[in-house]
């Protein structure tokens, strides 16, 4: 009996609400590079720490929410309070500023602490279709992340009502998945974020 109980324990991952928040680590913006450390997402180029040279950066997004450093194969998150420093860094190193991708924000809207009208939901659906998603694909993505995003926003008493985005879904799913499974999800999540966008 204990044998089966131990197997069950190994296969079941109990999620403590506070563990759903992995954060985005910390960073220092220097003249020619950005030092990122304590970065939580293991598949990332920046995990657990990395100096990102300006010449390796495709673009920087400071348009909304958490700032993003866009690399060819990755997206690195930088705290919003460093946006002005990032803009200066981008200007000095001739790095373009890119538009914000709303793909994940739109996909995650059902898990916000707010009521969405049918008309608004239809508008979001149209925007996702224009960005290359099918209705079925959006439903499948939401099916994969839905329960975990509810835990992330409500079991933790975060009660975010404005916007959930890529860092949120990565943090939530990182607490659920094994390393191997999260590695697969991370790659898919970045593709969703970048889809039909020039970042």
Task: Detail the topology: elements first, then pairings.
Elements: H1 2-11, E1 26-29, E2 33-37, E3 49-53, E4 57-61, E5 67-71, E6 75-78, H2 83-92, H3 103-107, H4 118-130, H5 135-155, H6 166-176, H7 179-194
If you had to describe this structure to a student in words, what would you say it looks like?
The radius of gyration is 18 Å and the shape is globular. Residues about 1-15 have low confidence and may be disordered. Helix 5 packs across helix 6 (about 165-175). The longest helix has 21 residues, at about 135-155. Strand 1 and strand 2 form a beta hairpin. The protein has a 3-stranded antiparallel β-sheet, covered by helices on one side. Strands 4-5-6 form a 3-stranded antiparallel β-sheet, covered by helices on one side. It has 7 helices and 6 strands; from the N terminus they run αββββββαααααα. The chain starts with a helix and ends in a 5-residue tail after the last helix. The protein is of the alpha+beta class and about 200 residues long. Helix content is about 45%, strand content about 15%. The chain has helices spanning about 1-10, 85-90, 105, 120-130, 135-155, 165-175, 180-195, and strands spanning about 25-30, 35, 50-55, 55-60, 65-70, 75-80.
């Amino acid at each position: 009996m204990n044998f089966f109980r131990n197997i069950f324990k190994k296969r079941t991952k109990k999620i403590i609400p506070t563990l759903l928040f992995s954060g985005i680590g910390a960073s220092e913006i220097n003249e020619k590079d950005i030092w990122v450390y304590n970065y939580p997402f293991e598949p990332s180029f920046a995990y657990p720490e990395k100096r990102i040279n300006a010449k390796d950066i495709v673009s920087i997004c400071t348009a909304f929410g958490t700032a993003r450093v866009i690399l060819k194969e990755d997206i690195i998150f930088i705290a919003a309070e460093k946006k002005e420093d990032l803009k200066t860094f981008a200007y000095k190193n001739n790095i373009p500023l890119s538009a914000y991708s709303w793909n994940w924000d739109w996909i995650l809207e059902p898990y916000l602490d707010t009521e969405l009208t049918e008309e608004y939901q239809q508008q979001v659906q149209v925007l996702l279709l224009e960005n290359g998603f099918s209705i079925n694909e959006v439903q499948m993505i939401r099916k994969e992340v839905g329960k975990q995003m509810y835990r992330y926003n409500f079991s933790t008493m975060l009660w975010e009502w404005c916007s959930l985005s890529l860092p949120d879904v990565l943090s939530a799913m990182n607490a659920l998945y094994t390393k191997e499974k999260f590695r697969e999800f991370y790659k898919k999540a970045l593709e969703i974020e970048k889809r039909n966008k020039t970042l």
